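Why should sequence recovery work at all? Because a backbone constrains its sequence more than one might expect. Tight turns favour small or flexible residues, buried strands favour hydrophobic ones, and helices have their own preferences. The token representation captures these environments compactly. In the example below, the structure is given first.
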């Protein structure tokens, strides 16, 4: 017998759940890409995207995923042979660095492991030592989707300023934008990299770059025509938004997704994600009082509000994910990058995705399924994690009168 029949829930850190209203908006024949409704709709997205990123700067849209947006960020700012500094707190900082290296960029790493945020003092010291300003950019991941660490990007800018270093600050916000608080202009970020399939609540397929005037002035000697952000940010003709044919149906979906976000407001979105994240943490902490389960990031200050990485030990992670999917209709994220890919230790991790289109009953249902799975599989745990989560939600949503 399986209890998984019915609507499946992907509690993975992207692609996140797509709202029904967004799916309905996308379910249409392709529109006229030369004039009319789609042209006006696309232009209407830009101001709201700026509101999401808290910026007055440029926006460039790409038909690609986050990896494509990584490449676009490098192609528009750096020459082969330039050096970048990459603070590593998980798999995705390494991925961005690999992309840079493949494009001929020299990469210098500072590795902080898989359970800690960036040490801003170490970064400041390295930048102070770079008296010739060889380092042209610092590539900082705001939330690493593998470890679920949340780095202090405002603090990173402060460290760069304290070192009086002119490098660009480039931030990967693929997992965090629209979930964790992020304020591009107030935090002094020059390039923000993100994609459509997480906090923006769309299917994969659109990469986005936000870039400052300082970043625009860093234009390298040669920019590949497709990745060039200049015509995308200031198109003379409609096709230049996308370097060719528009991502038509995604644009209709994005209009609805942004309408939803504008109605809730960014402060409300950040608060909702923070509360739901605390509920998940409370459940894991409780379960772990009598078993092997533990949160990967010990300090709540440095935990993502969009994804939570959990250590449970091999093979429990694999068995719990399989049980939740096959018996309860819930897909948990794999333990990405927490152990060598050919090691059995990789089965000792899993991840909760709680980003974008997610609410209290989705999280409570998710946690209930996990607690049932722990019992069904005889994995040691302390019953009552769901109750601990409910108490967090009750306290946050208590009526004021």
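From this structural description, the recovered sequence reads:
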């Amino acid at each position: 017998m399986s209890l998984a029949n019915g609507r499946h829930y992907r509690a993975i850190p992207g692609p996140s759940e797509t709202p029904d209203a967004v799916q309905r908006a996308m379910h249409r024949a392709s529109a006229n890409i030369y004039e009319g409704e789609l042209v006006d709709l696309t232009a209407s997205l830009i101001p709201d995207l700026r509101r999401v990123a808290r910026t007055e700067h440029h926006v460039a849209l790409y038909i690609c995923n986050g990896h494509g947006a990584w490449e676009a960020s490098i192609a528009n700012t750096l020459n082969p042979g330039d050096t970048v500094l990459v603070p590593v707190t998980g798999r995705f900082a390494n991925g961005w660095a690999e992309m840079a290296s493949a494009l001929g960029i020299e990469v210098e790493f500072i590795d902080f492991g898989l359970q800690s945020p960036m040490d801003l003092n170490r970064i400041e010291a390295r930048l102070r030592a770079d008296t010739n300003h060889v380092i042209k950019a610092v590539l900082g991941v705001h939330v690493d989707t593998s470890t679920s660490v949340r780095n202090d990007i405002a603090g990173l800018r402060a460290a760069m300023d304290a070192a009086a270093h002119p490098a660009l600050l480039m931030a990967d916000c693929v997992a965090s934008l629209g979930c964790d608080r992020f304020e591009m202009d107030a935090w002094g970020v020059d390039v923000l990299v993100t994609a459509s399939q997480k906090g923006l609540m769309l299917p994969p397929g659109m990469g986005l770059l936000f870039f400052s005037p300082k970043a625009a002035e860093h234009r390298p000697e040669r920019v590949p025509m497709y990745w060039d952000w200049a015509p995308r940010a200031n198109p003379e003709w409609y096709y230049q938004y996308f370097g060719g044919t528009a991502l038509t149906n995604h644009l209709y979906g994005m209009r609805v997704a942004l309408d939803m976000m504008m109605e809730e407001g960014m402060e409300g979105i950040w608060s909702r994600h923070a509360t739901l994240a605390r509920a998940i943490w409370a459940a894991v902490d409780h379960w772990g009082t009598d078993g092997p389960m533990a949160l990967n990031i010990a300090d709540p200050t440095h935990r993502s509000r969009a994804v939570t990485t959990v250590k449970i030990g091999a093979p429990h992670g694999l068995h719990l994910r399989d049980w939740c999917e096959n018996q309860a209709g819930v897909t948990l994220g794999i333990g990405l990058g927490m152990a060598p890919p050919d090691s059995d230790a990789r089965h000792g991790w899993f991840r909760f995705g709680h980003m974008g289109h997610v609410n209290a009953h989705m999280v409570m249902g998710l946690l209930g399924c996990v607690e049932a799975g722990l019992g069904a599989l005889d994995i040691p745990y302390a019953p009552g994690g769901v109750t601990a989560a409910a108490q967090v939600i009750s306290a946050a949503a208590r009526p004021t009168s």
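A few observations help interpret the result. The radius of gyration is 21 Å.
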